[in-house]
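User: Can you predict the 3D structure for this chain?
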Amino acid sequence: MLIVVSAPSGTGKTSLCREVLAMFPELRFSVSWTTRPPRPGERDGQDYCFTSEAEFRRRIEQGEFVEWVENYGHLYGTSIRTVQSFLDQGHDLLLDVDPRGARAIKERFPSGVFIFLLPPSLAALEVRLSRRGESADVMAARLAKAKDEIREMIWYDYLIVNEQLDEAVDRLRAVYMAETCRRERFYDRMKGDLQSLTG
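Assistant: Here is the predicted structure, written as structure tokens:
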């Protein structure tokens, strides 16, 4: 199963995904590629796969990304090889991508589960973004982009409001557990047994 989580910057998507990943050891996370420099404490291959712009663009030309975008002057992308490898091994996979990337993934994997994370309000999001210590221009750009991204929520399968992290974690956990119980997923796993029962 492929699970895609999208959210505007400052909504707490990274924290939410980390909490749920810690709950389910069988759930894997697809580490994105990026050309931006690492932030303090980030590790290559764990938080992101950090690379040069030239190498990233070479990978684009080779068709190695299921989706890629440019945000604030840096490139971000999801490796199709990584995604397919986890799925082929029978792992459920969690991806953290913006709505443009999510749309591209939905075209390639229409049976994926798409979840949009919302802030409690735009005012609350503005407060969260202001805590990052960025310039007024950068913050205004992030807020404008957040409004555009929130408009995309209409085509996602699930919406989760992150007002309290523990409650949002419970909701994401509930979505994942419910999706693992879908009849179609059980049928795929037990196809042989079910065929023998029906003669």
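Residues 183 and 189 are 10 Å apart (CA to CA). The longest strand covers residues 65-71.
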